[in-house]
Write a structure and sequence with these properties.
It comes from Candidatus Kentrum sp. LFY. This is PD-(D/E)XK nuclease family transposase. This protein is mainly alpha-helical and about 150 residues long. It has a domain of about 50 residues. The protein is about 55% helix and about 5% strand. A two-stranded antiparallel ribbon has the order 1-2. The radius of gyration is 29 Å and the shape is elongated.
Length: about 150
């Protein structure tokens, strides 16, 4: 089934396809928070921006940096949800474990990048040695041929 995607703020059709949405068995409204633009065009986008990852507290990257007063009273309960979730000990521990795992993965990526660089350097050295050996073989053959 070919689905049609529309920008809710402008009504314009979106040509790009998303595997997750294509896999749904029913029509629905899907909001991809990471794809929300910096400018909030609708009340829904402004509210959902609370769940985005772009504005984090400088002291605690798990806390959103959100001004509750900027939201209407009826939205403030939703605006508080991320802070409430982070204050739960189990959720906080899960987030900290996630941070530790990400740090480990970043370390592994750096180690792999370092090893890849060494491999490239060694490949270059081997190429130089191959060229030097080929030149040596050529000179030996040339000297043998001149006798």
């Amino acid at each position: 089934m070919l689905r049609r995607y529309y920008d809710a703020a402008t009504g314009e059709e979106i040509a790009e396809r998303e595997e997750f949405i294509e896999g749904l068995t029913h029509d629905s409204f899907v909001i991809q928070i990471p794809r929300l633009r910096p400018e909030r065009r609708t009340a829904t986008e402004r509210l959902l921006a609370v769940f985005g990852q772009h504005r984090r507290d400088e002291r605690d990257g798990h806390l959103p940096d959100v001004d509750e007063a900027a939201y209407p009273e009826e939205c403030r309960k939703v605006v508080r949800w991320p802070n409430v979730a982070v204050s739960e000990p189990d959720i906080r521990r899960t987030m900290e474990v996630g941070d530790d795992i990400l740090a480990e993965l970043e370390d592994i990526e750096r180690q792999i990048a370092g090893k890849d660089k060494v491999i490239e350097e060694n490949a270059g050295t081997l190429d130089e040695k191959d060229r030097a050996l080929a030149e040596k073989d050529r000179l030996i053959a040339e000297l043998r041929g001149s006798r």
